[in-house]
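Ops channel
N.P.: pipeline sanity check, posting one input/output pair.
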């Protein structure tokens, strides 16, 4: 792939592809229909198995070395990813789903501010413009499912957005080091904390067969594969742009629910989805043209 795609294009493809792979998450959680504590425990255990399987397939005999390379930074990545998972699930429990998605859409902005403050990364004007347009588009998508909500739920959603943004920013402090193996630890943290505080009386019960099938598909296959690709995004892209591409999940997830559950979005949601997709496509095409001009030796000031 690296022979015909630029470094940046590989990052766009990985992150965007990962966001699309995890886009049925909300849909399948509805179909599974288990209590939050049970979902979190099974989600943590199964994703940990999926992540370690991917690490072993990719690294073979060097699997332990892949974990050791992450160091203490990897521990921080795992904790931040776990915080984001808990914030997302608990946010949906205590406030409206639309509120959660609107606040999560702020993750690229938070990542941009964190990267500017701690890494001194400066984003071009087009990225700031894209963040603003995608925030607007996401708000239109979830407008009919938003409201005043609960301040506790909104705080959990903010925790999810901040954890996600800080995770991507932290990854940028170790250039060239793949932090995706540490998502295995994150899965174990989520399962352990949920089991300890989730009041699972009588122990963890095996879900009904139909729920188990969807649970395995989501947590053992889709989430490990998708989040491994997303977690590799900061190797190629600024943290804010990784968060920006994750908004594809909101658009695709809305379409999944409409298509399979018949929950038709409001008309304004289609406008919002078109705005998000149009912004990301336009930005990608513009930057592809800039890359071509750079290879042809165009002056640097023309590429800003």
């Amino acid at each position: 792939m690296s022979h015909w795609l630029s470094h940046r294009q590989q990052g766009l493809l990985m992150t965007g592809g990962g966001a699309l792979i995890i886009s049925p998450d909300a849909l399948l959680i509805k179909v599974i229909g288990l209590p939050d504590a049970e979902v979190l425990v099974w989600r943590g255990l199964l994703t940990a198995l999926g992540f370690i399987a991917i690490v072993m397939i990719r690294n073979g005999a060097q699997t332990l070395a892949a974990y050791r390379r992450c160091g203490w930074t990897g521990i921080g990545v795992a904790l931040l990813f776990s915080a984001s998972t808990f914030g997302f699930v608990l946010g949906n429990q205590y406030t409206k789903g639309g509120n959660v998605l609107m606040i999560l859409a702020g993750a690229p902005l938070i990542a941009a501010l964190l990267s500017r403050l701690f890494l001194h990364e400066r984003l071009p004007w087009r990225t700031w413009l894209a963040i603003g347009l995608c925030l607007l588009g996401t708000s239109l998508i979830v407008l009919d499912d938003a409201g005043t909500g609960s301040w506790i739920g909104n705080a959990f959603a903010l925790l999810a957005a901040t954890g996600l943004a800080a995770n991507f920013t932290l990854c940028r402090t170790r250039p060239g080091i793949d932090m995706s193996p540490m998502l295995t630890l994150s899965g174990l943290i989520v399962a352990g904390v949920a089991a300890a505080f989730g009041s699972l009386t009588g122990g963890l019960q095996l879900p009904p067969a139909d729920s188990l099938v969807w649970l395995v598909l989501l947590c053992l296959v889709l989430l490990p594969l998708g989040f491994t690709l997303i977690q590799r995004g900061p190797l190629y892209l600024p943290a804010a742009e990784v968060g920006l591409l994750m908004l594809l999940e909101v658009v695709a997830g809305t379409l999944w629910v409409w298509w399979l559950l018949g929950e038709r979005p409001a008309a304004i949601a289609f406008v919002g989805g078109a705005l998000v997709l149009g912004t990301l496509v336009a930005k990608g095409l513009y930057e592809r043209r800039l890359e071509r001009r750079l290879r042809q030796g165009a002056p640097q000031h023309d590429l800003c």
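N.P.: looks fine end to end. The CA atoms of residues 108 and 240 lie 4 Å apart.
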